[in-house]
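Data availability (excerpt). The following record was deposited with the supplementary files.
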Amino acid sequence: MRYTLLRVNLFGEYTLDKASSVRLDYIHHRTFFNEWTYDGINNGFPFLYSDNTTITAQQRQSVDYIGARYVYKFQ
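Predicted structure:
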């Protein structure tokens, strides 16, 4: 079994005035795993239940997130 993770978190913050600011976030999350790769078992399906239901998972997956927030600080 092999599991690899790459995560990049970036953010930028811009102050509008003494009490408020705007922040932008970017997150990139990429994984590789081969824990479900049982090739050749159960007619080529990685996992087979008794009712013939199968489970598969992609080995390479990635997610990108972009978020924005407004912050106001009470003084």
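Summary of structural features: The mean pLDDT is 84.
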